[in-house]
Structures are given as C-alpha cells and as structure tokens.
Amino acid sequence: MLDLAALFSKHQLDARGVIHVGAHEGQELPLYRAMGFRHILLVEANPAVFARLNASVAGDSGLELALCAVGESDGLATLRLTTFDQSSSLLPLKLHREVYPEIEECGTLSVPARRLDSLLAERPGGVGDFNLLVLDVQGAELQVLRGAEGSLAGFDAVLSEINFAELYEGCALAPELDAFLADRGFRRVATACFHHPTWGDALYLRPAPAQPAAGRDSEAGTLA
C-alpha cells in the first residue's frame, strides 16, 4: 500500500471515515486506527475469510463489518476462489496465471452482492461518515465504482488497486479507471507498483473547492 498517512498529511485531508472493500482479515485496520479514522467499514465477500476477520475484531468499537461482494447490482455474485485467498475475485484469472503460476483457481462460491449505494443507504449515517474509499477487489474496481454513483460525491479520496495488464479477465486497466474517476471529479495523484509492474496502488483525490478571493462576495462575485 502507498504511504496513506503521509499522503493524507501532504494533501491536508481529514481522516474522518474509511470504507475498505475487499478487507480480507483487516490487515490495514491498525493503520486506519493510527491515522485516527473515526468510522471504519470493512467489507469482505469470502465467508471463510470474513469469519476470521470477525473473530479478530470482536468487540472493537467504532467498527462495522459487512459480508458481501460489492458490484454493479444487488443480488448474488460468483466469487472465484484461489489457492491464495487474497487473489480470489469476481473475475477469472488471466495473465495472473503467468505472473503467479503457484496460485490457481480452486472453486467458485455464490455470495450476496450489493451496490455500495444500497449498502450505505441502509446505515443511519449513509456515506456522510466516510471520506475515503479503499478498493482491494482484484480487478473488479470498476464494478464497485459503477455501483457507487450516488456515493462517490461524498468521498474526498479513492485508494484503489490499479492494473496495467489484464491480470484478471475483463479487468479495468489504468486508463479506464483514470477516465471513469476523472469524469466524477477525481485525479490520480500517486501510484506505486511494489510487487510487479503489471499492478499496484493508486490514490485519487477530488480537488478542494476553490476559495473565493478576499473581499469578494462568493456568490455574486462583486466587491463586498
């Protein structure tokens, strides 16, 4: 992962709340706590992994968990399981087989699927408690974003895995992800590939609104 704490400090962002889609066992939770996030929602689709996550954070206040896949529609989705469960995805393996030949698909599982908009509509605070969206969904990033059209405007930042090659069949590549988020007011400000040049992490920010010039009425644009 990028140095999220340093990037939040550099861009003067408030660590208000984070939604992590594809949370696995909550490995990033200590970081989120250290950064001071007041609201944390961890979403995991694999029931076996979710059980481990739930057991590890039992009794942790200010933390919400959701067992579901997140995508473009509500209903059911097919989760493709792999021998390394962090590589499980809604999409079939493609170039991933060549880059990581030791990881293989080992089954499928039908799991509940929710649009992020639907999931957030059911909680009292809606999206208002959160300003960072983290996507760790193995090539399905654009599916999540397409199901979050109503929520995206509430986020200041999106931290996403980004693909420069088709590791998963049909996965969104960097230009497509950039264009989708740019159309919704976000721009990529940081990228890092730690493990292999075909994929990495990217941080997208929504520029802060321009402040009115001193001595001018912000609505009429006339001298005060």
Task: Briefly characterize the structure.
The chain is globular and about 40 Å long.
C-alpha-based Rg, rounded? 18 Å
Name the structural class: alpha/beta
Low-confidence segments? 210-224
Average pLDDT confidence is 91
Which fold does the CATH topology of one domain refer to? Rossmann fold
**How many H/I helices?**
7
How would you describe the oligomerization state of the chains in this entry?
single chain
- Cα-to-Cα separation, first versus last residue: 47 Å
Structural shape: globular
Q: How much strand content do the residues show?
A: 25-35%
Percent helix, as a range, is 10-25%
Strand order of the largest sheet: 3-2-1-7-8-10-9
Order of helices and strands: HEHEHEEEHEHEHEHEE
How many beta-strand runs? Answer: 10
Please identify, by name, the CATH architecture of one domain: 3-Layer(aba) Sandwich
Which superfamily, in CATH terms, is the homologous superfamily of one domain? Answer: Vaccinia Virus protein VP39
User: Which class of one domain in CATH terms?
Assistant: Alpha Beta
